[in-house]
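Readers of this paper often ask what the protein records in our data store actually look like. An entry from our holdings is shown next, in its original layout:
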Amino acid sequence: MRWTTEQLATFERDGVLFVEGLFNPQEVARFRSAATPDASMAVIPARGGNLYWRGLLIQMTNPKAALHWIAIVGIGPGAGAPLWVGIALVVSTTMLSLFGHLAYAVAFSTAPVVEFYRRARRWIEGALGLFFTVAAFKIATYKP
């Protein structure tokens, strides 16, 4: 049996929706964490020689991130694209990821940002919990 492009696209879309529907409930749990009293947010200096590998393991086992990168690559080069287009896509998305994560690390480890988050944590996590609750509902009830 040979699948048409439309059948493959439908299968891919349904698979992504299914996986997103499975993993969004963990984000919905932010509502519960937003309702809890502020926990201690003591700044603990990072130690150890394996911090890079721990961070890489967290990133590489994140199924949502993997699905998003697969989607980006899926809409990138067409069937007849030359090799340099694929190489440019991989290099540019790698650089984007590297510099983005470095910016997060620097920005979110500064004292003013940590203090702001400490004060606004319940509101931030409540808003994210509401957003992901609505997103999970929309994904679960999506009808093409």
